[in-house]
Structure formats: C-alpha cells, structure tokens
Amino acid sequence: MRRPIIPGLKERDQETNLVTRPITSKLELAERLRRKRTKEYLELLADLDMHSEVSMNVDSVIISIEKHFMDVPKKEQLIGILAKCYLDDCYDVHLIDRDKTILQHIKKSDSLPKEFAKARRLALHPSYACIEVYPDCLRAIAINGEVSVVKE
User: Fold this and answer.
1) Backbone phi, then psi, for 149, in 5-degree steps?
2) How many helices (H) does the chain have, and how many strands (E)?
3) Cα separations (Å) of 149 from 6, 13, 36, 100, 152?
4) What is the pLDDT of residues 85-139, one digit of tens each?
C-alpha cells in the first residue's frame, strides 16, 4: 500500500510538528490553528499573572507568542489574547493586544475594546486557559491545550 502524499510533510519541524514554511491554503490554515497548543505556550500565558504591567517586558511576550505562529500569514494571525486574571479580586481578565503591544490587567468595572469584549465571558470559564481573538472568530484554548473554535 502506498503512503498518501501530505502537503507540507517535508517542511515540518520534527520536534514541534510546525510547518516551517508559510501556510498558503485555507484548509491548511484551519488545520494549523486547530492544532493543540504547546506546553511552553500555555506556561507563557500562565506566567502573565506573576508580573505587573510595569515589570513585564511585553515585547518579549509578543515575540514569544509570534514564534508559535510564525508559519501563519500575518493577516490571519491573532489580534490578541484574553485570559482570566488572578492578581487581585478587582481584576477579572488580562489582555495582550498584539497591535498595540500592550499587556493590561482589566478591572471588573472596566470595559474592553470592541474586538475583545465578546471573549470576556469565555475567558472567565474555568475550563479555558485563554481565548485567542482573531479577525473572524475566537479560539478557546483549554487548560490541556485543546482548541475550540467559536465563530461569530
């Protein structure tokens, strides 16, 4: 029996199973963004509660996040990430906005930018480590790294 030809098989990193060339098709993009998130990625996001806005090097966090999505075309990459905040009772979520390169811990009484507002309730759910916000959908990342897509 012959092995099927799988596009991009030779261009995958053997350790991470990430495609090492840019993704070109919608099908390949959907498959890539549904792939389970790595332990390192989840740990990076969990560490955000240990730092204040002042002590955190936001640029290094965004560079680390972009490294996980380097094969995804820029226009298809996430806008930002929203996750439950454990710093203090007055905060409910923290926000990483890639475009503005900011990390904010958001108080319960504060409003969020429009594109992130729809993700707030999901981010507070105990099953999710974070919510990735994309131009066309939300991706709820479970504590174990599994991805659920929430279409608008």
Assistant:
1) -100, 130
2) 5, 6
3) 24, 25, 12, 24, 10
4) 888 889 899 898 887 777 888 899 999 989 899 999 999 999 999 999 998 899 9
